[in-house]
Amino acid sequence: MSIFEYNGSAVVAMVGKNCFAIASDRRLGVQLQTVATDFQRVFKVHDKLYIGLSGLATDAQTLYQRLVFRHKLYQLREERDMKPQTFASLVSALLYERRFGPYFCQPVIAGLGDNDEPFICTMDCLGAKELAKDFVVSGTASESLYGACESMYKPGMEPEELFETISQALQASVDRDCLSGWGGYVLLVTPTEVRESVIKGRMD
């Protein structure tokens, strides 16, 4: 069994018209045994930038703490928040410098950049970036997430439609993966507001 599948996870980010959504499941397991049903996988960096960490849960929490530390140093030095593209490069460099003893995480980064242009990307545990204009996925449910997102996504969605699309894609995907599930956590970010929602799913 892969160490990336030890806790189970599903993370997806999707772009809309001047907005983005990032969602994750809420299950924390030890292989097939469920330990918690309210586990946090999507973390705030600043008001317009979020990161989702799939993979080994302990490494996800450690990596997030190191990223918060680096971002606070940047804020002190530059007196501004980090742009999503810059943050993606920071995450990539942080992962690559630990390539001989890596964090077992696959990050999904989503943010609003200049002119409220949405930016999303994902990377492997060594920091190799994969940029996209529509959606990115990671976790044990990534195969079914790809299928659901491919069939449901369309460009230029308004916030309400984007929220509905990413929620349906997440729910449909985790139902096909026994290592993730127990509802979902969805963040919808527009230039003016951030909406957090917990969605209920099958509890089996």
Describe the structure.
By secondary structure, the protein is of the alpha+beta class. The chain has a single domain, classed as Glutamine Phosphoribosylpyrophosphate, subunit 1, domain 1 (4-Layer Sandwich). Helix content is 30%, strand content 32%. The protein has 4 helices and 12 strands; from the N terminus they run ββββββααββββααββ. The chain has helices spanning 57-78, 84-96, 142-152, 159-174; strands spanning 10-15, 20-25, 28-30, 33-36, 42-46, 49-55, 105-112, 118-123, 129-132, 135-139, 184-189, 194-199. The chain has a 5-stranded antiparallel β-sheet, with helices on one face. The protein has a 5-stranded antiparallel β-sheet with strand order 5-6-7-8-9, covered by helices on one side. Helix 3 (142-152) packs antiparallel against helix 4 (159-174). It starts with 9 loop residues before the first strand and ends in a 5-residue tail after the last strand.
